Amino acid sequence: MLPTIAILGRPNVGKSSLFNRLVGRKIAIVDDTPGVTRDRKEGETRIGGRKVRLLDTAGLEEAPPETIQGRMRASSEAAVREADLVLFVIDARSGLTPGDRAFATWLRRQAVPVLLVANKAEGRLGTQAALEAYELGLGDPIPVSAEHGDGMGGLHDAVRETLPEVAAEEEEGGPDRPLRLAIIGRPNAGKSTLLNALLGEERMITGPEPGLTRDSVAVEWTDSTGGKVRLVDTAGLRKKARIEQALEKMSAAASIAALKECEVAVLVLDALLGMEEQELRLARLAEREGRAVVIALNKWDAVEDRTAARKRLDDVLTASLAQLKGLSVVPLSAQTGRGVEKLMPAVRATYALWNRRIPTGELNRWFEAMLSRHAPPLVDGRRIKLRYATMPKARPPTVVVFGTRAEELPEDYRRYLVNGFREAFDMPGVPVRLQTRGTSNPYAEAEG
User: Fold this and answer.
1) Which residues are annotated as part of the binding site?
2) CB 436 within 8 A of CB 404
3) Which of 31, 76, 110, 445 lies 20 to 30 Å from 173, alpha-carbon distance?
4) In 3D, which of 142, 130, 86, 132 has the Cα closest to residue 109?
5) Which residues are annotated as a binding site for GTP?
6) What pTM, to 2 d.p., does this model score?
7) Is residue 346 located within the same domain as residue 425?
8) What is known about what this protein does (predicted)?
């Protein structure tokens, strides 16, 4: 029996959009009209590295049992009884409603773990709005946008950590748990050739024709350090305008799915072409999903002016990928094998940084030094008073800053803190999350 995950929430909060996003195809009808989903729909998919049965339920509404809405609610309650995990979805854009609060209270009494999913949380403002959901008492809200695909990596991680009876090798931090590695890049950049070079065997079909790999292929392997790796060689991503055949659309979806499932992404570049908009888009998607990135600069043996090629790449990374400042670049030739032996040590080093947690005392000594060097600016003539910082999680490193009006912190000061954090704790090339939480202060107005 596959583990069962039920998606619950009020009508029109985006449950069916989330279901379709997680299943990877449009099974549930999506519309702005509340109550479109009346019957439970189900599909099998992989979430957090595990194959699961996913249920899309009708909306939860307060209604008499004999009405359609009442029967829809009864159907949703039946789904909870058979679920191993519930995803409770709210609309971050419209804020909490009495219905959300009532159903959260009901869910807290059920004998099933619940993850709180704040949908429609596009952008930083949406993420801030999602924080309101803490008052539901269901733990940390997971901000996502089912429509745009934002935040799915965080949801996969939360499912992986919460779903009961996870096999020992899959448990967080388990000694035998394989590192999940995705190999991504444009078609014909040499991804399959690189995988063959890492494995030391012709596992993947290769050739000069772009698009030979149509689906993602999972490969278990032990690297030279003795650690287990689960490699996924993905079909290459092309610009949307050029994805005309349905098969290529499926390949692109498989690539994105692999990125959400992985921990470290190896972005394969053709050194003769350099880093173009497609690769930048992939790197930004990896960063947005909180994945660590290592660049494999393939076909390096065919580059004539290597100094100029590296400078061009470094300039692009500095100008367009500041959020992954300092990421590792490994020049290599997958065809000849030169430099391939340096790739996995770089991956392991990046993975260690991605997993690293800073003790609270050390973090706050750094935080106080940053505040004394450059105090937060006034916003609308009022002072932002930051008090302390914590690091509740790694994977990726996440810093939460508390203080009066902390949520009003300007973007440039956020960048100042993130860059200072990277530099002080030597964390190049991994995404760093900065979240802010306001604290109640009865003298707040007097301080302004």
Assistant:
1) 9-16, 56-60, 119-122, 185-192, 233-237, 298-301
2) no
3) 110
4) 86
5) 9-16, 56-60, 119-122, 185-192, 233-237, 298-301
6) 0.65
7) no
8) GTPase that plays an essential role in the late steps of ribosome biogenesis.
